[in-house]
C-alpha cells in the first residue's frame, strides 16, 4: 500500500510539471490561437467548471486535462504538444459530464465571419466521441445549447458529436450567428447526455483558434467621396476601413489603400496607413487624401480597395461615379439619367427598362425608344459613352458582331485582372436578370469574359457575379447567365474582363442586361 501511494505521488508530481500556468487572461483579446506548444500555450490545466458522475481514467487519479506530448504513440497534429482530456463515465442511470476550463475572463468579441476551429483525436473508446470545445458567452448562454452546427452539419454539443476515432479531425464552426456576443470562457468537455452510456474516454486537442476565416480581409466603413465636382476643383476626402482579417496591417507589410487597376482619374493610386501606424483585427483606419477633378466635364469612376502590394487585393471595394460638371444633372431614386455635351437627355435608366433618345446632327430629337436592355451603348456604336475603358481595351471597327464597332482587348504581354466597366445601372434587390454577350476569343492564353458586379446604396461592392464565357475560339459565340441580385443590391455594373495572364486579342459586342 505504501509502494502504491509513492507511485501515485510521483505520477502526480510529474503530471503537475506538465500543467501549463493556470493564468486567466484578463485583458481584451481580439483573437485566440493556441497550438499547445511551450511558446504560445496560455491555457489552463485541471480547472473544472462543473462535473457529475465522472471519475479518473486511472482509478488512483482524478479526470485529466492538461498539455502533454508523445502519449500512447499519438503524434500531434502539429508541433510536439497537444491538450489531453481523459476520464471515465461511471453512471448508467444519470447524465455524466465534466467541463474543464481552457480560458476564462476572455472578453473576446465575436464579429461577422469569425470561426472556431480546432483539431481533435478521439482515442479508441466510443465515449471519446462525446467530447468537444464549448464556449460560454457573457450573457450566460453557451455554444453547445445554441443548436449551432459545424461545417459538416454536426451539432456542437459534446453529446451529439460523432467524429471518427483514432485519427485527427478538424472541427470548424462559423460563429457569425453570434455576432455581437462576447466570449467569456472556453471549455473542453465530455458530456454523454444519455444516462445509459458508460466507459472510458480519452481525446487530444490541437491547433485551437477563434479568429476570422481569412488572413487578409477588409470592410469599408464609410467614405466622403462626393457625387459631383466642378471641373478643376479639389476636394479632400476620407475612406475609413476596418481590418476584419487575422493579419495586422502596416506599411512594413506593404498594406495600403489602392486605386483599383492601379490608377484613378482623381488621385494618386496608393495611400499608406497614416503616421506609420499598425492596424490590428477589429481596428479601423481612415485614409485622407485630395481628389482633383479634371478640367473637362464627364462622369468618371473612382474605385478603391485594400491591397498588399505584390501579394493580393482583398476585402470590400468602393466604387463611385463622380459627375464632373458645372451644372449638376438630375437624379431621382431608381432612375438614372445620362446627357450629351449639349445637355440633351440620352438615356433614362429604370430598374426594369430603359428609354433611349436619338437626335440628328442639329440636335433635333428623331426618336424616343423603350427597350428591355438596361445597358446603354451595348454594341459600342456610340464610342466610349457609358463605359470606362481599361488601358488594354478600345473601340474597334476591325471586327463586330452587330453594327460596325465592338470593344477589343489586345496585349502582347500577360495581363491579369483588367476590365472595362459600364457606369452604374439601377436594379431591384433579390430580382432575376439575364446577362447575355457575344464574344470573339482569339487569345493565345488567359481568359476573356463578361460579368457583373453588384453594389448597395452606399456604393459598396456586394457580389462579384458569374461570368459569361464562350468556349470556342476564332469565331463569334453567344452565351448568357442568369443573375439573382442580392437582397441589398441596388445597382450593378457590367464588366468586360481579361484575366489569368491574357495574351492576344479578343472582342465583345451586343451585350444585354434584361430583367426577367
Description:
The structure is a single chain. The strands form six sheets. Strands 25, 26, 27, 28, 29, 30, 31, 32 and 33 form a nine-stranded antiparallel beta sheet that branches. Strands 1, 3, 4, 5, 8, 10 and 12 form a seven-stranded antiparallel beta sheet that branches. The protein has 516 residues and is mainly beta. It has one helix and 33 strands. Helix content is 3%, strand content 47%. It has three domains: 19-212, Galactose-binding domain-like (Jelly Rolls); 218-328, Sandwich (Immunoglobulin-like), CATH 2.60.40; 387-515, Sandwich (Jelly Rolls). It starts with a helix and ends with a strand.
What is shown here, in short?
With 516 residues, the chain is mainly β. It has one helix spanning 2-18; strands at 32-34, 48-52, 54-55, 64-68, 82-89, 97-103, 108-109, 114-122, 131-137, 168-174, 182-191, 199-212, 218-223, 228-229, 234-243, 255-259, 270-271, 284-292, 298-308, 312-324, 336-339, 345-349, 354-359, 365-371, 387-388, 393-396, 406-415, 418-422, 425-426, 432-455, 461-464, 476-484, 491-515.
Task: Provide tags for this entry.
1 helix, mainly beta, 516 residues, Jelly Rolls, Immunoglobulin-like, seven-stranded antiparallel sheet
